[in-house]
Design brief:
The structure is a homodimer of 343-residue chains. Chain A contains twelve helices and twelve strands. Chain A has 343 residues and is of the alpha/beta class. Among the domains of chain A are: 49 residues, lambda repressor-like DNA-binding domains (434 Repressor (Amino-terminal Domain), Orthogonal Bundle); 133 residues, Rossmann fold. The structure holds a DNA duplex (30 and 30 nucleotides).
Chain lengths: 343, 343
DNA sequence: AATTTTGATGAAAACGCTTACAATACTGGT
DNA sequence: ACCAGTATTGTAAGCGTTTTCATCAAAATT
């Protein structure tokens, strides 16, 4: 079927001009006479001609296309980043296309630079540390990729890499979250964190410890656990904390890795007969759409993902080698309340 | 920066062979002596050589890349489709990349076939009818696109187009949903539907009417409304129904367009003092991850989106011109219950 | 009217691969 | 040692654009 695709030659012949002229018309160059332009445009319309980006990219070495790679789409908040990036790109005349994580690193842990082969004008990579993709492989892939196109990183940026990036200041976020909870009277605060790179500022556990210290609260190791960012894992994680402790020692507030995990916590809490926020306060992170519709509505950190996507495109296109911080704000809803008065 | 990107010539020179040989090694052809192969591979490794997909695509007219275009990513269920498609593609040696809806139709309603310019090996298009993209423009875009690459449609397929497709049998789904609710004793069932193409089988309202008829229930026009697929719109839609009717005439069950809308219904119900499912039963559609974590957990239709994504790739690659039906199943949770006994 | 300037067009060489097809280097059988 | 047959390698012609440079006609200047 893709046989009849017309080329610039077909158009040129049919319009009785040279291919150079067709090329000029297609790219909207000025120096073509009105008459010729109209003639050519007519033929283009009638043949539904669409110049090949491949050929264009080859000869001009620009594709006006960016790439974005996201770890998983099962977390709706990556979708937000994509949406933001996509809008910004479009408004600047660029096209953006999303590549799965495997185009960077395949499931066997090899670098699989499908991405590099496309010779894009740049790529945004949203890095999430998981046990599988830490360290070596990731770093090698990124370095190799970078020799092919400009790269902007979002999220957790490995210490040793000096890339333009927009980073999450997770330590600070968690620290302030702890503050927020202590103001509500909580002293037994648990943290369900993730794997968070080697960079202090992107580590929740670092901020957690700081937060506790700020308020002279002891660090209780069974209050800090790590898990993956899914509801199931969240549920298990809280189960583990609660089942391992006498009720008297149960935390009164939990900081979750993200909203998905928070949803899992809701279920675990229910199972253990805890009402939110009366017996247990829960705080999420990301502010995904559903967060507002849980009951009780989830108090969480809005990570402004759309804005983040936009800024990433911006950074990529301006070409400066900067590291910026992502914005965020706490959104208070109903899942955090005053510490329960146990009698 | 993207200056130093090595070409096949660089590799050839450095390895002391011809470019044809390098090409053979890169593509893993058999007929290269072991010695040569190793020599070339070493150079490829050391230079981090990644052949240009552009050049490759041009000369071979295959890219081993598929496209997928989804209307919006704000509905997590599209993410599921992508995930499924992505996995299936990979297992068949293809790469898949996602394009935003604007690469098909731009916001001004013009066809913007960025997609066509990439000369992909095929593309999956997930069609959602909205007031903006109905009819003409969409159809013209699809037709034009199809002359460039094979197309498989998912979702609501315009009547007049004979494309290979996997369609939702919405009419049947809604009809059976009505049955399910009548078995619980409901007689006042509302439908919050969407814009659903011109095809009977993809129209919820058609199935709704059939369902009512099956059970000899009257059609009450204020019970049927249309809305867009967001929580906000859902909330408004139910508000409108409830506010427009005396409580005695309020529906006892509502069928929602999708789970996002259902979440909006929860909020509206709460606002009107209705408890779910005691006063009002709610049924969603899609079975997004969050659905299971609402309280009460949402009874919904699992649209098996991952499987759908896989099947779409399958259909695209097998090249047959078939129309299939998407699978689905009702998942019972807590949001639907027996009809309230009003005294 | 002759000359210069300007504007519109065309010819041809890249761009980095694949892929016939041709050429060469081996192999084993005599 | 010779030849056919086979395995390996190289040559060169595309693929569909952009872009530089040259050409040519028309308009502007003298």
């Amino acid at each position: 079927m893709p046989e009849g695709t017309p080329t610039i030659y077909d158009i040129a012949r049919e319009a009785g001009v040279s291919i150079a002229t067709v090329s000029r018309v297609v790219r909207g160059e000025e120096n073509v006479s009105k008459k010729t332009r109209e003639k050519v445009q007519a033929v283009i319309q009638s043949r539904n001609f669409m110049p090949s980006s491949l050929a264009r990219g080859m000869s001009s070495r620009r594709s006006y296309t960016l790439g974005i790679v996201l770890p998983r789409l099962t977390n709706p908040n990556y979708a937000e980043i994509f949406t933001g990036a996509s809008e910004e790109a479009r408004s600047r005349g660029y096209h953006i296309s999303m590549f799965p994580w495997q185009s960077l690193i395949d499931p066997q842990g090899n670098q699989a630079l499908t991405l590099a082969s496309w010779r894009l004008d740049g790529v945004i990579i949203c890095v999430e540390y998981t046990p599988e993709n830490q360290g070596e492989t990731l770093i090698r892939s990124l370095e190799a990729l970078r020799s092919y196109m400009p790269v902007v990183l979002i999220g957790c940026v490995p210490q040793c890499l000096q890339y333009p990036a927009i980073t999450y200041h997770m330590a600070e976020i968690v620290r302030q979250s702890v503050s927020y909870l202590t103001e509500l009277g909580h002293e037994k605060i648990a943290l369900i964190g993730g794997m968070e790179a080697d960079q202090d500022e992107s580590r929740r556990d670092v901020g957690y410890l700081e937060g506790l210290a700020d308020h002279k609260l002891p660090f209780i190791s069974s209050y800090r656990v790590f898990c993956r960012g899914t509801p199931e894992e969240g549920e298990k994680a809280l189960d583990a904390i609660l089942d391992g402790l006498m009720p008297a020692y149960w935390p009164t507030a939990v900081l979750a890795l993200n909203d998905l995990v928070a949803m899992g916590l809701y279920r675990s809490a229910k199972k253990h007969g805890l009402s939110i926020p009366n017996d247990l306060s829960i705080m999420g992170c990301d502010n995904i759409v559903s967060a507002a519709y849980l009951s009780p509505a989830l108090t969480t950190i809005d990570m402004c993902q759309q804005a983040l996507g936009k800024r990433a495109v911006d950074l990529l296109l301006c070409g400066e080698d900067m590291r910026q911080r992502a914005e965020w704000k706490l959104v208070e809803r109903e899942s955090c309340g005053p510490v329960p008065q146990r009698l």
